[in-house]
Amino acid sequence: MPESQFFAQVPKHWLRLTPQDDFLKVAAAVPVALAGALKGWNETWERMGQSEGELVLMSDMLRDARFLSCGDSALCVEFSREVDEQANTVALALASALDAEPPAGMQEALPTYRSVLVAYDPLVTSAREMTDHIRTCLTRIRPSDELGRRVEIPVYYGGDACLDLDELAETKGMDREELIALHMSVDYRVYMIGFAPGFAYLGGLPMRLATPRKPVPRQMVPAGAIGIGGEQASVNSVAGPSAWHFIGQTPLRLFDPRRSVPFLLDAGDNLRFRRIDEAEFEDLSDRVSRGESPDVIRETAL
Amino acid sequence: MRILNAGPMMTVQDGGRRGFLRFGVSGSGPMDRDAFEAANALVGNAPDEAGLEFALIGGRLSLPDECLIAITGGDVPVALNGKPITPWSSWRAPAGSELEIGAMRSGVWGYIAIGGGVTCPPVMGSRATHLRSGVGGLDGRVLRTGDILPLGPDTGAEPRKLVKPMRLRGGPISLVPGPQDDYFDADAFSCLFNQAFQVSQQRDRMAMMLDGPEIHAAGGHDIVSDGTLMGSIQVPPSGRLIVLMADRQTTGGFPKIATVASADLGRLVQTPSGKAVRFRSVTVEQAEAMVREAAKMRRSALENLAPNDLLPG
Question: I need a surface site. Which of A64, A75, A151, B176 has the fewest CB within 10 A?
Fold first, then answer.
């Protein structure tokens, strides 16, 4: 479905991220936003031409899930081998269902692009018991109910992490402003958090921006860098080496172990980038680094 | 407790951090859980209590207050106030003691447990150091000379020693094929289970690299990233096996040919670099039976500690 058509009908319950209010308000804001969004979202599903087809696809995925052997303390439930939005939705739904009512012995459920790794204590349960439990669980899941938060990330398309913007624009035959506009024009989905603490793998990148990774990784890319790697986009959580292309930076910290909620994003969240200028970037960065009021999610009506 | 001299890879570890795999943080915790739990049992701590882990070389510690200490893991010379003491036993250290731990004669990872445990503040529910994310332990880093660590109150437990074996020795390391076993053909598995591999010097708390025959993934060496475990064996395009460890990346894009059976993980991580390892194939059910048997053996050993009435030296 075209993204623009999809989001045009979604209620305006975006969560804006600024370091202003108390982080604890997040907990209060999220359910309010979700409750409103969920209702609208379901209506949207129903109104969309392809929704029925997608739901059928997802029920096929639930039925055809593959159980992969991962030793004596975990198993992997795989819905697809490809990067696939429906598989991701189903994986997130299974992980939520398992987290909501963990079977005896289950330790953790790790949803990824296309599968869920379920770790358990082999002294309490077994692969057979976990498989049976998960099979039952799969028959009860309604993935259409699954909806992530809606989050807005401020981005400065300049500065220390704007390493490849000009080169990328030239390669794509567009000017700088055009590329930025294209990057901001869509809504992204957090397929999974992995690789590093809080690192968000995003789907939804406009195909015109897809760019193969660099042959030689850069040694150091700052935290908060906004990246493009192949058909994926990213918001980097911590500084480190990377072979992706970087076009900007968010002043927000995706990972801060000192916060009561260390991670800003979770798999299934829906992101939108909001352009900020250098002054706002500096201001937000200062306040984030002073720790005076850490990252905040604030409900806003756009 | 003050670190007078730290080995190259000394960290605070507890039972591990749970609940953050989906946020990109692996569990950390001890590389050799059997040895870690034994050290805690010997000083009267709960199995998950925080202690110190070191690799290959220990170091020197000063203990300001009277406490009970135990060293386990690989075979290493230990002296308390200049007098040799045996590992796998607990010893009462008078106030102002100095503990010196030398270089491993066999094995790789060692543990120092102190009655009452190391009590640095937990981060995200655990004191375990996760070096990749700089979380836990002391500022999320390896310990250095001059560091001071807080300790819990002395448990008052009596010195004890291990008299029954903790785990079975010898034999090939058991692997359960999968999760991407269908990326590999019969030749790859024949190579994995019939040839010897050597533990390379490239190893840390994230992964162990193995030298030896190259393994080819007929289905390609690239998968859409999925979850990893301690004991997952990845096969990158070089064909050189990578066994993922406690501080691993939570997701990875190389196919995983097999997973190490939990009961054999401790033996694998304690294999010195340069030594050969051999693998055998087991089913999930066999691996489950092994882990239950191993737990029974460990429980029996730790519930039947004998008094350690020896004096140092």
Answer: A64
